[in-house]
């Protein structure tokens, strides 16, 4: 019997270790992460505690003197697009742990694609990476998930590249994805500024899930003595002494400033991002994301 291909092995592992556990924890309530793009009016009912206040029908409420909300039937089929940043900084990860941001990205995309396609939905992918930008057209079924994984595994690594610019990827998606869809943007958002405006425009048209990849060592530098550090984006190398407390403090201050700048950019784009770390348990991370998104929908506008 022929051995399973690399994409097949990845999917089998995730089916057993992640998807199976999610089925039990989320109990099929995947709408917390995925919502249909269109909706049809279904009924009116009295407001109940915990309902989204944005669903209140104010005309009916004024006539009835008590709050009423509108209920909708969501489209059964979702078309989801993964927008993926595979720039050099995404190849960073804790040495020896085997958990590069790229590896976490592939596992996350495979899991979400599997959850979606099992319910008849379609998934596609636009990747910005070492080979420029390429697209995997939307499709459905298990074969489509394997196609996405294979394309990701073939994506070359690029060293010594200019700083990443996410704007072209977002602008390309805005031009090409015309029908309202579920957009899953995955990046570490390390690169040149200016991606806020195209992200905001994309968020207006589509249901958007922004996922920020992080590694703990990008924020807190451990004391491991002299090391050779390399900028993943530019390839520039520098010897540093991590035993120097003042150097570690400067490193942390620079990381905090970068975090603040990224948070401010998301604020300007009016997008709330979720975080996926290289030391996260993928099942717990996805359940956390679903919970966060469910709570956000209940907040007043």
Number of domains: 2
Major β-sheet annotation:
6 strands, mixed
Poorly predicted ranges (pLDDT <50, ≥5 residues)?
A: none
The helix/strand class is alpha/beta
Q: Count the strands?
A: 12
Mean pLDDT: 82
- Specify the overall morphology: globular
User: Secondary-structure element order, as H and E?
Assistant: HEHEEEEHEEHHEHEEEHEH
What is the CATH C level class of the largest domain, in words? Alpha Beta
The strands making up the biggest β-sheet line up spatially as 7-6-3-8-9-12
Q: Which fold does the CATH topology of the largest domain refer to?
A: Rossmann fold
Query: What would you give as the CATH superfamily of the largest domain?
Result: von Willebrand factor, type A domain
Number of helices: 8
């Amino acid at each position: 019997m022929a051995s399973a291909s690399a994409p097949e092995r990845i999917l089998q592992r995730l089916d057993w270790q992640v998807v199976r556990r999610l089925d039990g924890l989320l109990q099929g309530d995947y709408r917390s992460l995925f919502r249909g793009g269109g909706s049809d009016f279904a009924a009116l009912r009295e407001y109940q505690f915990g309902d989204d206040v944005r669903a209140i029908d104010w005309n009916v409420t004024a006539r009835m003197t008590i709050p009423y909300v509108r209920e909708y039937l969501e489209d059964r089929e979702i078309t989801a697009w993964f927008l993926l940043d595979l720039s050099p900084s995404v190849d960073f990860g804790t040495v020896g742990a085997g958990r590069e941001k790229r590896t976490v990205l592939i596992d996350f995309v495979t899991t979400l694609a599997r959850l979606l396609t099992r319910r008849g939905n379609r998934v596609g992918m636009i990747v910005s990476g070492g080979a420029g930008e390429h697209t995997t057209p939307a499709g459905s079924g298990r074969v489509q998930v394997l196609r996405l994984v294979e394309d990701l595994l073939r994506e070359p690594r690029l060293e010594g590249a200019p700083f990443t610019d996410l704007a072209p990827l977002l602008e390309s998606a805005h031009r090409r994805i015309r029908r309202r869809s579920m957009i899953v943007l995955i990046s570490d958002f390390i690169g040149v500024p200016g991606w806020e405006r195209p992200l905001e425009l994309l968020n207006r048209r589509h249901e958007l899930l922004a996922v920020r990849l992080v590694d703990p060592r990008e924020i807190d530098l451990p004391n491991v003595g002299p090391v050779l550090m390399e900028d993943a984006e530019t390839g520039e190398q520098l010897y540093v002494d991590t035993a120097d407390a003042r150097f570690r403090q400067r490193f942390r201050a620079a990381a905090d400033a970068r975090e603040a700048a990224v948070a401010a950019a998301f604020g300007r784009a009016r997008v709330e991002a979720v975080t996926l770390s290289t030391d996260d348990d993928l099942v717990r991370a996805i359940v956390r994301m679903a919970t966060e998104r469910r709570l956000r929908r209940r907040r007043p506008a």
